Amino acid sequence: MRPAGPAPSDDDGPAAAAPLLARAHELDEAEPLRHLPGRYLLPEGLLYLDGNSLGALPAGVPDAVADAVRRQWGEGLVASWNTEGWWDAPQRVGDAVGRLVGAAPGQVVVGDSTSVQLFQCYVAAARMRPGRRVVVADPDAFPTDLHLLSSAARLADLEVVPARPHEVPAVLAARGGEVALLALAEVDYRTGERCDVAALTAAAHEVGALALWDLAHSVGATDVDLDAAGADLAVGCTYKHLSGGPGAPAWVYVAARHQRDVDPPLTGWHGHADPFAMDGRYVPADDVRRMRVGTPPVLSLLALEAALGTLDDVTAAQLRARSTSLVGLLVEALTALVPELPLAGPADPARLGGHVAVRSPDAWGVVRALAARGVVGDFRAPDLVRLGVAATTTTHADVVGAALALRAVLDADEHRGAEHAVRSTVT
Ligand SMILES: Cc1ncc(COP(=O)(O)O)c(C=O)c1O
Ligand SMILES: Nc1c(O)cccc1C(=O)C[C@H](N)C(=O)O
C-alpha cells in the first residue's frame, strides 16, 4: 500500500497534470482499440468510471432488443424458441463469453444469476469430492459469494475455512486431504487486486481439491485463461465489463473433463438430457447443458448476445492490454495528483484488474462530489472510492480527467457538504 503523503500545493496540481494530460492524448492516439468507445452510447460530457458495476450501453443493443421484442416475440411467438434459436441461446452466448475467458467451446452456459451459479457450483463441487468437507474461501469475497457458501455449507455439511489469496498455500498445506474446494475471485471487488489463477488452481489440485473462480470483475478486463489454468469451475457476471445490461444473465464454466460428473443441486428441466420427453425422472444432459436450470431470461440473453457482438473482432488479450494501460495511467495520475489518498491495492497495473480504489474517511462524500462534477465512480464501505476503467469505453484522457476532478473536489472541500450525509444503496 502506498503511504499517505502531503497534498500538492496550488501550483503542483496543474504542473503535475500537464505531462499526464499530454501522455493521455498520446496514448489515446496510439491506442489500437481507439475505435471501441465509438461503439457504445454514453451521455455527452460524462466521465463514467463505473463500468465495473454496470457497463455502458452498446450502440447496437437497442435495435437488437427492439427486434427481439417486436419481431421475434411479437410475430414469431412460440415458434421463435426454434426459429430464432432461443432454446440454444444459453450455450451459444456461453461460447461467446467463453472466448473471452480462455474456455474452448462447449464449456460455458449463460442463464441464471451469478448468485445462483455460485450456489450450483459450491454444492456440485462438494458432491464431486465426497469424504472431504472443507471449502477454503476468501473471507473478504463479495458478500453474495459468502452468503451462498454459508447456505451451501449448511446444506452439504461443509466447513468453510477462511483464507485471503496470499494465505491459501499455507491453508491448503495445513488442511490438505480434507479440502474439497478452493473458491476465490481473480479480482478483489474492493481493491482491484488480482491473484494468480493458474498458480492457485495448481495448489488446489496438488491436494486433490477443485478450484472455483468468481470472474465477475475479470471477464472483459483480464486475460484469464481458464483452460490453460486447468480451472474446474468458474462463474461471472455479464453486466459489468461485457455491457450485457442491468440484470444480464451470468455464466458458468465447467471444464470438459468434469461435465459427466458434475451434479448441481438445481435440476431444472432445461438441464435434462431430453427436456421435451417430459419425463418425470431427471436424466441430466451429458454436457455443460446440465448446468441450465429453468427458462432463461431470453430478452436479456439476446441483449447480451448483441453486446458481445460488439466485441466479435476483439480478443481478450487486446482488451487486457488496453485495460492495463488505462489502469496504469489512472494509478499514476492518482499518485501524482491526490497523494493524500492511499491506494487500497497494488500500484502495479499487472497486479490489478479493471479498477483502482483509494481510501478516504470521507469516501462517500468524495464519490457524491465527483458525481456532481460529472465523474461517476462508486463508494464501497467503509472507506473506498472505487474508479473503474472499461477497456471498451474509457479513454486515457478520462482517467486523468477523473484524477483532476478528485483533486479539485478535495481542494474545494466539496466532499464535506451536508447533502452527502445520507448513503444511498447504489454508488
Ligand atoms: C465478485 C462478485 N460476485 C457476484 C456479484 C453479483 O452477483 P449477482 O449478479 O448474482 O447479484 C458481484 C457484483 O454484484 C460481484 O462483484
Ligand atoms: N450487481 C449489482 C446490483 O445488482 C446493484 C448495484 C450494483 C451491483 C454491482 O454489480 C456491484 C458490484 N458487483 C461490486 O463490485 O460492487
From TrEMBL:
One of its GO terms (biological process) is NAD+ biosynthetic process. GO terms for cellular component: cytoplasm. It comes from the Bacteria. Keywords: Hydrolase, Pyridine nucleotide biosynthesis, Pyridoxal phosphate. Transmembrane segments: none annotated. Its EC number is 3.7.1.3. Its cofactor is pyridoxal 5'-phosphate. InterPro entries: Kynureninase (IPR010111), PyrdxlP-dep_Trfase (IPR015424), PyrdxlP-dep_Trfase_major (IPR015421), PyrdxlP-dep_Trfase_small (IPR015422). It catalyses: 3-hydroxy-L-kynurenine + H2O = 3-hydroxyanthranilate + L-alanine + H(+); L-kynurenine + H2O = anthranilate + L-alanine + H(+). GO terms for molecular function: kynureninase activity; pyridoxal phosphate binding. Pathway: Cofactor biosynthesis; NAD(+) biosynthesis; quinolinate from L-kynurenine: step 2/3; Amino-acid degradation; L-kynurenine degradation; L-alanine and anthranilate from L-kynurenine: step 1/1. It holds the Pfam family KYNU_C. Catalyzes the cleavage of L-kynurenine (L-Kyn) and L-3-hydroxykynurenine (L-3OHKyn) into anthranilic acid (AA) and 3-hydroxyanthranilic acid (3-OHAA), respectively. Belongs to the kynureninase family. Homodimer. This is Kynureninase.
